[in-house]
């Protein structure tokens, strides 16, 4: 089933100062939203598999746009969908879960072993959604538990549309200090795995 895109919207924020202190490096956070026709709008369909491939196509396309805007390695990612009022919540699930995440991981080209956090809701034009973020390779990396809040498109979704959003960052939260695993732990584990591989 071909995807009908009405518009693409890209946002970028560069965080240099947070919580009374400069960040160690600029943290870039990018979202890419596609406003698309919902082919299942206005009726109940038991079989939603025809729109799984739309998720796959958008996962690849939006992620590649996002990586170009990010301009560096992806550390955290997330995904979301706002469903217009003639759709249902499960339409967002059909877009996000069966194939979109795999397409994102493939586009990024890194191990990307962690599940991609996601969110979905039904809303009117101008609705906003919070996009949860997680580290790409390890879900338990507490320094990268984060959210990009209130992402949306001013005139979407119309009743028969979906807003599909991919979020990418090149860093975790500014000044993480609540304990748990952080990047230093992750890098130490990678070094240990490499040592083990070489010795084996």
Could you characterize what this model shows?
By secondary structure, the chain is of the alpha+beta class. The chain has helices spanning 52-70, 89-108, 183-199, and strands at 5-18, 21-37, 76-83, 118-122, 128-135, 146-152, 161-169. Strands 1, 2, 3, 4, 5, 6 and 7 form a seven-stranded mixed sheet that branches. Helix 1 crosses helix 2. It is globular, with a radius of gyration of 18 Å. The mean pLDDT is 95.
Characterize the biggest β-sheet.
7 strands, mixed
Question: How many beta-strand runs?
Answer: 7
> What's the average pLDDT?
95
Which stretches are low in confidence, meaning pLDDT under 50 for 5 or more residues running? none
- Dominant shape: globular
Radius of gyration: 18 Å
Q: Given the helix and strand composition, which structural class is it? A: alpha+beta
Please report which band the strand proportion falls in: under 5%, 5-15%, 15-25%, 25-35%, 35-45% or over 45%.
Answer: 25-35%
Distance between the termini: 48 Å
Q: Which short descriptors sum up this protein?
A:
alpha+beta; 28% helix; 200 residues; seven-stranded mixed beta sheet
């Amino acid at each position: 089933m071909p995807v009908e895109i009405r518009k693409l919207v890209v946002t970028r924020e560069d965080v240099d100062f947070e919580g009374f202190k400069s960040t160690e490096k600029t943290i870039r956070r990018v979202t890419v939203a596609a406003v698309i026709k919902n082919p299942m709008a206005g009726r109940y369909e038991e079989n939603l598999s025809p729109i799984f491939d739309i998720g796959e196509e958008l996962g690849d396309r939006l992620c590649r746009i996002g990586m170009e805007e990010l301009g560096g390695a992806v550390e955290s990612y997330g995904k979301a969908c706002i469903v217009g009022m003639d759709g249902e919540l499960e339409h967002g699930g059909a877009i996000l879960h069966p194939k979109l995440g795999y397409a994102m991981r493939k586009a990024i080209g890194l191990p990307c072993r962690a599940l991609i956090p996601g969110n979905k809701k039904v809303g009117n034009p101008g609705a906003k959604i919070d996009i949860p973020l997680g580290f790409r390779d390890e879900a338990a990396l507490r320094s990268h538990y984060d959210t990009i809040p209130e992402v949306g498109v001013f005139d979407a979704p119309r009743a028969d549309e979906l807003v599909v959003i991919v979020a990418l960052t090149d860093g975790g939260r500014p000044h993480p200090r609540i304990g748990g695993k952080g990047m230093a732990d992750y890098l130490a584990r990678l070094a240990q795995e490499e040592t083990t591989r070489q010795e084996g």
